[in-house]
Each structure stands twice: as C-alpha cells, then as structure tokens.
Design brief:
single chain; mainly beta; Thrombin, subunit H; four-stranded antiparallel sheet; globular
C-alpha cells in the first residue's frame, strides 16, 4: 500500500526499469495493481511492480508474421478489466490480443489503409473493448491537422460505433479512466476540450489562466474533476465539472 509519505517531492522511492538505448513509449498498470506493462516498438514487456523484474514478453517480431514493418509498431496498449487479455494497437494497422496466461496471440481488428494516402493513428480506449481511430489527409497534416476525423470501433463486433470531427488543432488526447470522455489540448493559446465519446458531443471547454502552453489533461474516476497541465510556466490547474470552474493552482515550481 502506498502512503502519502511515499510521494514526497523530488524523492525517488525505487527505480523499477532502466535500460540505455531502449526507449519506452507507453506505460500502463495491471488492473490488480501488482504489475505494469511497457511498450518498446514491436514488443510489450510485463514487469513486477515490487521488483521491476520482467515477467513476460509479448512481441510482433516473428519472422513468419507477414505484416509491413510500419504495422509492427505498438502505439498503445490496454488490459481488459478482468486482467485476462492484453491488447496492443499498432500505429497504422492491426489490433492484437494476447492471452496473459498462455501468450497466445490473435489479430482481432485490422483497419490498415491500403493506399497509405492519409495519415492515421489508432489508440485503445481504457477497458479493452474499444479503439479510437484518428485520420487526416496529407493536406491537413501540412496545415497542422485542424480537421481530424475520429471514429470509435467496438473490438467485439468489429464495427464503428461512433464518429467525431475535431475541428481544432489536434495535439493528441487522453481518456477518462472509464473511457467515456476524451480530453484534447491545444498548446497555444492553452485550451482543453472534453468530448463525450458516447454522444459525440463537446461537453466542456476550459482555458487555463496565464500564458502557459497546454501540455496534457486528465479526469477523475467519478468525472467530477478535470486536471490540466501547462508549461512555460509549469502549472497544474484543477477544474470542477461540469461547470468547469477553476480552483487554485495545485502546483507551481518552487512552491
């Protein structure tokens, strides 16, 4: 059990993973809280949270796997709520599922573009049941992708269940813990938007005070609070939903 003292400022409690020349792109916790997963390009590793020891490895490096190199890069991952299956979404291609007990792998959804004429990213929505697909055409990419089409796909039925047009500069996004909401951020001027992925509605728009550049957003489990982070200067702001009134800054360097 982690105590409040565990999070003392600027104190590293334990280093669980360190390896030169092996960048980590994504980190998630197992639902039972005793282990974590890391993505390394075409590979996902499973580690003990107590010791950092590698417990298992899930990979797309098989020589007999007939997919383009670009479709081996695992851009996001998730574990279903019962902790039985691991999901990996590649950057522009298939979604894979591994059985955590047997390491058996299955391709469960493939939305690869045959022509590669449009940009596309896929990202798993928390819960292991849905996928968010992001698309834009080359001319939009040159214009900073101000009109991005997002679609939500059910991994069970393999059908699109929701679509959403984000007509704002797209700098990526994060999800609420249950996957209901998508939080997008615009860096300058700093703006965060909350989208309901079940209704495709824009629920809330917040503008962090000051001249900082928005970097990230997050939401509480009960959807009551939104957290925004800005840089230059670095500051965290806590907003109360759904009115999105801002409270006092939670963090400023040097305080």
């Amino acid at each position: 059990m982690l105590s409040k003292s565990t999070f003392a400022r600027d104190k590293v409690v334990k280093t669980l993973y360190k390896r030169d020349g092996d960048p980590v792109f994504h980190l998630i916790l197992h639902p039972n809280g005793d282990s974590f997963f890391l993505t390394h390009g075409p590979t996902i590793t499973h580690h003990s949270l107590a010791t950092g020891e590698e417990l298992a490895r899930f990979s797309l490096l098989d020589e007999d796997l007939e997919i383009p190199p670009a479709d081996r890069y695992l851009y996001s991952m998730d574990v279903d709520d019962d902790g039985r299956h691991l999901y990996g979404a590649t950057l522009m291609g298939p979604v894979w599922r591994w059985d955590l007990a047997t390491n058996e792998r299955e391709r469960i959804l493939d939305l690869s573009s045959d022509t590669r004429e449009q940009g596309q990213f896929s990202r798993l929505i928390p819960g292991g049941r849905r996928l968010l697909r992001q698309e834009w055409k080359p001319e939009q990419a040159r214009q900073r992708a101000d009109a991005v089409e997002l679609s939500v796909w059910d991994l069970g039925s393999k059908e699109m269940v929701q679509s959403l047009s984000v007509n704002v500069p797209w700098k990526g996004g994060t999800f609420s813990p249950d996957g209901r909401y998508l939080i997008t951020v615009e860096r300058a001027p700093a703006v965060a938007r909350v989208w309901d992925l079940e209704t495709s509605a824009l629920e809330v728009v917040v503008k962090p005070p000051g001249r900082g550049r928005a970097a990230a957003g997050a939401m509480s489990h009960d959807h009551r609070f939104l957290l925004t982070a800005t840089i230059l200067p670095a500051e965290l702001q806590l907003w109360e939903m759904p009115t999105a009134t801002v409270g006092r800054p939670l963090y400023r360097p040097g305080e």
